[in-house]
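Researcher: Go.
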Amino acid sequence: MSSGGRVWLFDLDNTLHDANPHIFPHINRSMREFIERHLGVDEAEATRIRQEYWARYGATLTGLVRHHGTDPRQFLWETHQFADLSRMVVKHGALKDLLRHLPGRKIIFSNAPGHYTEAVLKILGIRRCFDSVWHVERLAFTPKPFTGAFRRLLSAERLDARRCIMVEDSALNLKTAKRLGMKTVLISSASRVPTYVDARIESVLDLSRLGLSR
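Model: Structure:
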């Protein structure tokens, strides 16, 4: 495969920026509060439900829609509101330069809602680095790791999965990617990784040393 024919599929949170310090705690709290309000449960039960659906489906939203008829747009809007998002995003300093030097198309493939995804890309200053942005609304609310999410993107973008390199912090999402024929790059500090992971790096900035772009 020539480098010019490659297509890079990038996750957003904890891949292109660090969501752990500020953003994920805020979203988790917002999801718990949403569940408390809409299901009429206490904090402990709401936390249990959120964690169970995340573990079972890879996305809290999927469980709420399947088992409680939750309106996905309402859930995503209410749980992704930030008083000052720009102060919460932890940036990787050389990210824009890295993306500009990666040959081939670059696509965002995120389970996050569109308004949040676009806002983070703008804050990072990298929106123009990507040819297309896929968020959970464009995926018809079928998130990764479900095969349907991948097939929807591949079909709409007219891509051969074998041309794609997926860069993710979730090993579960990479399992689906590998099954479809993609190259897989896991962003993780873990010393041991699943066999379906082709490469592990600790930061997206380490992509350049893998030799995948040549």
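Model: The mean pLDDT is 94.
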